[in-house]
């Protein structure tokens, strides 16, 4: 883990996905390279001030969109943000819609996730010597979600809830899969909410997602006639709406908050922490520091 100075601190983390590769309007910008016990994050973290808040921006797929969903260093990304002092994370991603009334250009603040990933994506920080079972019934922060939805309303049509179906990819679904997910009542489909949301909970970070609806998934009759240009136009509009939403949200977002997310490990650590090997204590210093016995 690298050691950061005071200037390298941020209150809010923003993970940008397809359609949001950079944030305009940041001032006092510094780029920092962070190393973590879980490897390197997707890219340098861009630290800057937006609407009076110090933010840490990380492009999820790296500069030039070169890391596919299955290979994202999600553990390093979340760990890096936490190491910079971040306590609240806003995760932006492009999604397909599984229902008619969630139309391209709409924004969704999802409240649930169904995990359909199949590869080893590094689903937990706690992979040696310590067993942790965090509650995950509510995968997104219930305090942050309505604030995000309120800030989004001025910029697009907003859906204040939705179940995010996270598939492995990188291929899109088959029509049969898409119809299956629809029959399950799932609302939007993407490739990145898992394990990001799981890891944010383990890192005791408040985490909310802003999903930008790009297209109807392949179930929709009009799907085959959608042109790349039309999708590009929707993505551009979505990106602008996301930036305006973040700018508005940060203006009013409380930073000194007490939220259950930030104590998620308090009753979740099964293994007694009294006799951990030194190497394990080092690996988990940032995540378990406040729970480790001193001396
Ligand atoms: Zn929270």
UniProtKB/TrEMBL annotation:
<dbReference type="InterPro" id="IPR018099">
    <property type="entry name" value="Purine_phosphorylase-2_CS"/>
</dbReference>
<feature type="site" description="Important for substrate specificity">
    <location>
        <position position="173"/>
    </location>
</feature>
<feature type="binding site">
    <location>
        <position position="192"/>
    </location>
    <ligand>
        <name>phosphate</name>
    </ligand>
</feature>
<feature type="binding site">
    <location>
        <begin position="215"/>
        <end position="217"/>
    </location>
    <ligand>
        <name>substrate</name>
    </ligand>
</feature>
<protein>
    <recommendedName>
        <fullName>S-methyl-5'-thioadenosine phosphorylase</fullName>
        <ecNumber>2.4.2.28</ecNumber>
    </recommendedName>
</protein>
<comment type="subunit">
    <text>Homohexamer. Dimer of a homotrimer.</text>
</comment>
<keyword id="KW-0660">Purine salvage</keyword>
<dbReference type="GO" id="GO:0017061">
    <property type="term" value="F:S-methyl-5-thioadenosine phosphorylase activity"/>
</dbReference>
<dbReference type="InterPro" id="IPR035994">
    <property type="entry name" value="Nucleoside_phosphorylase_sf"/>
</dbReference>
<feature type="site" description="Important for substrate specificity">
    <location>
        <position position="228"/>
    </location>
</feature>
<dbReference type="Pfam" id="PF01048">
    <property type="entry name" value="PNP_UDP_1"/>
</dbReference>
<feature type="binding site">
    <location>
        <begin position="60"/>
        <end position="61"/>
    </location>
    <ligand>
        <name>phosphate</name>
    </ligand>
</feature>
<comment type="similarity">
    <text>Belongs to the PNP/MTAP phosphorylase family. MTAP subfamily.</text>
</comment>
<comment type="function">
    <text>Catalyzes the reversible phosphorylation of S-methyl-5'-thioadenosine (MTA) to adenine and 5-methylthioribose-1-phosphate. Involved in the breakdown of MTA, a major by-product of polyamine biosynthesis. Responsible for the first step in the methionine salvage pathway after MTA has been generated from S-adenosylmethionine. Has broad substrate specificity with 6-aminopurine nucleosides as preferred substrates.</text>
</comment>
<keyword id="KW-0328">Glycosyltransferase</keyword>
<comment type="pathway">
    <text>Amino-acid biosynthesis; L-methionine biosynthesis via salvage pathway; S-methyl-5-thio-alpha-D-ribose 1-phosphate from S-methyl-5'-thioadenosine (phosphorylase route): step 1/1.</text>
</comment>
<dbReference type="InterPro" id="IPR010044">
    <property type="entry name" value="MTAP"/>
</dbReference>
<feature type="domain" description="Nucleoside phosphorylase">
    <location>
        <begin position="12"/>
        <end position="250"/>
    </location>
</feature>
<keyword id="KW-0808">Transferase</keyword>
<dbReference type="GO" id="GO:0019509">
    <property type="term" value="P:L-methionine salvage from methylthioadenosine"/>
</dbReference>
<dbReference type="GO" id="GO:0006166">
    <property type="term" value="P:purine ribonucleoside salvage"/>
</dbReference>
<dbReference type="GO" id="GO:0005829">
    <property type="term" value="C:cytosol"/>
</dbReference>
<feature type="binding site">
    <location>
        <begin position="93"/>
        <end position="94"/>
    </location>
    <ligand>
        <name>phosphate</name>
    </ligand>
</feature>
<feature type="binding site">
    <location>
        <position position="191"/>
    </location>
    <ligand>
        <name>substrate</name>
    </ligand>
</feature>
<feature type="binding site">
    <location>
        <position position="18"/>
    </location>
    <ligand>
        <name>phosphate</name>
    </ligand>
</feature>
<dbReference type="InterPro" id="IPR000845">
    <property type="entry name" value="Nucleoside_phosphorylase_d"/>
</dbReference>
